[in-house]
Amino acid sequence: MAGTLLNDDEINGLLSDYPAWSFDGQALTRSYQFPSFDEAFAFMSDVATVSASQNHHPDWRNCYGRIDVTIVDHDAGGVSDRDHRWVTAVELLNPLEG
């Protein structure tokens, strides 16, 4: 199910709320750096639970303690309210910001 696409002002508001995220013109992106693989993997596990509950899944890559994340609503054809909800939920899990 596609979400509602965000306009430029809404995307900029999201980026203002979550400055570690960026917009590459098509999707939202962010990198996380954890002290260890175990901590990175634990965070990925928590994010997987959120993703499953929202039926909205990131494209991501993990290398040791680094996680590179891209999120976009493919069904909507861009960044949508679903991405906003997902980013908000994931950032609440982020132990690096706590």
What structural keywords apply?
single chain, 98 residues, alpha+beta, Gyrase A, domain 2
At CATH level 2, the architecture is: 2-Layer Sandwich
Side by side, the strands of the main sheet go: 1-2-4-3
Count of distinct structural domains:
1
Biggest beta sheet attributes: 4 strands, antiparallel
Characterise the protein shown here.
The protein has 98 residues and is of the alpha+beta class. It has a single domain (8-93), classed as Gyrase A, domain 2. The protein has helices at 8-17, 37-54, 81-93; strands spanning 22-23, 28-33, 59-63, 66-71. Strands 1-2-4-3 form a four-stranded antiparallel sheet, with helices on one face. α2 runs antiparallel to α3 (81-93). It is globular and about 35 Å long. The mean pLDDT is 95.
Task: Give a short summary of the structure.
The protein has 98 residues and is an alpha+beta fold.
